[in-house]
Amino acid sequence: MARITVHPSFKIGEISNRLFSAFLEPIGTMVNGFMYNPKHPTADEQGFRKDVIDSLKSAKLPAVRLPGGNFVSAWQWKDSIGPKEQRKVHLDPAWYQFIPNDVGHDEYLQWAQKIGTESLYTINMGTGNMQDAMDLVEYTNFEGGTYWSDLRKKNGHEQPYGVKLWYLGNEMDGHWQLGSWEGNPKGYGYTCQETSKALKWIDASIETGVCGSSASFMDHFPEWDEEVLDQCYDTVDYLSVHHYHTAKPDDVKALLGGSLYYEDFINTEAALIDFVAAKHRSPKKVMISFDEYGCMMRDFSPLHPGWGRYNMARTHFRFDPARSYILHDPDNMKHFMFPGREILHMLGFLSIQLAFLRHADRVKIGCMTGGLGALCASDHDHVWKTASHYAYMQMLEFARGTSLQTVVQSDTFDLPGYAIDDTSQYTGKEGVNYIDSASAWDEENGRLAVFVINRNENESYALNVDVSGFAGCIPECPDRRAGRNAAGFTAVTHQEITCPEDEPDAVSSYEHQELYAPRENTTGKLDKGVYTCSVKPLSWNVLVFSK
Ligand code: AHR
């Protein structure tokens, strides 16, 4: 038996519209293949795949962080604009690839416009300088009458793009980053202070984000973040952090317990922000932008000498003569998935999203790496819907309004500490609830969504969801004194996603898109504000209460 209690008085914070956004970077065939393929039968006049555009447009994705990623730290945006035949082909040493710049600065922003989403833009703070950043904002956002803004018009975009949020670099604390500031947080923070100031003097309506640690595993975490923020607290709006949770393919507890490490990370960053704000005597609250996150299942890799990206032993500095630069051909694209069951990929990212919801007062942006693929799985020819698609769509629809404290009492498990490689090293956790939950109260529409994951692989749970505290606080709620409708909510829908019966390893495809479509769970009953139901092993449940 498990119990969840939600009460409207216990508010965490407003859920930002950008909380469930995605991240895009030209790695592999993400751009050349998924986004852009002039030979695709659905290609539009710019060579963008219309099947992908249509699918993402209908998802109503709020925002996408682009154009990278590590790639951006040596990307020269000025060489990516104007007539295609005049654009310059460059190397991307971060990912060992050619950057043909067929998709350049304008195309990234225009693609985002086509899918109806906001662009969250990352500036090159590796090899790029402050003047490049200023020219970039002038080109992108300034009305006209200057060299750069008129060049934008000449390049076919009369109206300013109005990009609101600018990230001051990507993972600048990482030794793998081109132009890394790992050894000089003060220098990076100061450069951000000056750059942010200059950009806001060009466009006063913009916001900026400064890099914090690329993972809580970093040796210098959290001091690096504090030192950076101390230099630029007054001019920036977001602290940008990243984390990729990793677990062995068959270790469900480690995978789904991963959200606890996200919460630790968030709590530390929030405390650090408050500390720096206090030092600055600032009434302002810098918010957290979790603009790259994900979880993956992979096998242990050797601790030394590994090739892991976050290798603390510095084996990352690899100069491999056998490695050669690749030009990704959009016409040679395959569907890519990390190992592991489809249901686990879905539950993995959802558990992180629930952690973000539980910290909705501090985390205002979340960009899922692989989020575009989660919404719209694809191969060379087609797009289709997977388990992740359906669940992500539910989050976009129902995680709105105010996040409320969601108190869980359930069976628990202990998670022993483990390491996947040099950097993915986790201390153990005790007393992790099998039931994971968060909620969203859309007061305006009198609708409460309670999200529930059953992390248990084997057991179903009888679950009581107590929402009796909502009595009387729903607009147009009938008079309580008359004894009518005292519990407030009168209706509940319960949708679940779980493995197809007898087919726990089933994989969605273009031909089989309905395998993981949400189904109605009919086990439940709402009585006097308490909903009683049963939740299946490894299931995702969305309960929507209404008047
Ligand atoms: O998502 C892949 C990479 O992970 C990004 O380029 C980088 O920012 C992070 O290290």
Approximate helicity band: 10-25%
Strand order of the largest sheet: 23-22-26-20-19-14-1-21-25-24
CATH class of the largest domain: Alpha Beta
Query: Ends: how far apart?
Result: 26 Å
What share of residues are in beta strands? 25-35%
Provide mean pLDDT, rounded: 93
Q: Output the CATH topology of the largest domain.
A: TIM Barrel
Total helical segments: 11
The bound ligands are: alpha-L-arabinofuranose
The major beta sheet can be summarized as:
10 strands, mixed
Structural class, please? alpha/beta
Number of domains: 2
Which CATH architecture of the largest domain would you pick?
Alpha-Beta Barrel
Give a count of the beta strands, DSSP E runs of length 2 or more: 26
Low-confidence stretches: 305-315, 478-487
* Gyration radius over CA: 24 Å
What is the name of the CATH superfamily of the largest domain?
Glycosidases
Broad shape: globular
Protein model, in words:
The chain is an alpha/beta fold and 547 residues long. It has two domains: 16-300 and 334-400, TIM Barrel (Alpha-Beta Barrel), CATH 3.20.20; 404-546, Immunoglobulin-like, CATH 2.60.40. 23% of the residues lie in helices and 26% in strands. It is built from eleven helices and 26 strands. A ten-stranded mixed beta sheet has the order 23-22-26-20-19-14-1-21-25-24, with helices on one face. Strands 2-3-6-7-8-9-10-11 form an eight-stranded parallel β-barrel, surrounded by five helices. A two-stranded antiparallel ribbon has the order 4-5. The longest helix has 21 residues, at 259-279. Residues 25, 68-70, 170-171, 242, 292, 309, 369 line the site of alpha-L-arabinofuranose.
